[in-house]
Amino acid sequence: MKIITFGASSSKNSINKTFAHYTAQQFQNATIDFLDLNDYSLPLFSVDLENEMGIPQNAKDFYLKILNSDFLVISMAEHNGSYSAAFKNLLDWISRYEGKVFANKKMFLLATSPGGRGGESVLEAALARFPRHAAEIVEHFSLPNFESNFDLEKGILDETLRKSYLSKIELVKNSMNQ
Ligand SMILES: Cc1cc2nc3c(=O)[nH]c(=O)nc-3n(C[C@H](O)[C@H](O)[C@H](O)COP(=O)(O)O)c2cc1C
């Protein structure tokens, strides 16, 4: 089982990267590839640039990482109710290379934010859109108030959220036959 995990953000200290990477480590017997969008920098997509230069290698490389994986753990950063610009740009470039961006892989889709809605808006957007790019979303989970609800050692601190998160981890494990 090979898991690809990343936060859909280009912040160096992305809370979504932290949460995605932490979550991927809840699955045993897996090889985990911890990706960072900053390692796949891309120019701002435009059809004119695409005509001039074609698809950048970094977009192809990111897609190949997905293609060669068995499972995706992604946590969505919310900017103004939607995807971060860095993630949307990556999605746009890859979608021009291969419309099935998520290559029919199973996915645990997450979102977190410092606020009380936990990135619910971007999560809704991704839940509606990703299946159109061949994502098989097995479960999703949103964690509100990241700073007060999450600890790297202890995991999710709020008891109700913790129970919900752990039950989803179990469902995902079942879907992986772990
Ligand atoms: C331009 C911008 C817009 C934001 N808009 C939202 C928003 O709509 N909803 C929200 O919950 N948080 C919003 N935030 C706060 C982000 O959730 C917060 O910066 C979070 O840390 C982003 O995730 P990341 O750390 O993984 O990059 C925004 C932050 C920025 C910089």
Distance between the termini: 9 Å
Strand content: 15-25%
Query: How would you characterize the largest beta sheet?
Result: 5 strands, parallel
Tell me the number of strands: 7
Number of domains: 1
**CATH homologous superfamily annotation:** Flavodoxin domain
- CATH arch. level architecture: 3-Layer(aba) Sandwich
Q: What small ligands are held by the chains?
A: flavin mononucleotide
CATH topology: Rossmann fold
Proportion in helices: 40-55%
The string of secondary-structure elements, in order, is EHEHHEHEHEHEEH
The dominant shape is globular
- The CATH class is Alpha Beta
Radius of gyration in whole Å, from Cα? 16 Å
Strand order of the largest sheet: 2-1-3-4-5
Q: How many helix segments?
A: 7
**Low-confidence residue ranges:** none
Given helix and strand content, the structural type is: alpha/beta
Overall mean pLDDT? 97
- From the structure provided, what is the oligomeric state, counting identical versus distinct chains? single chain
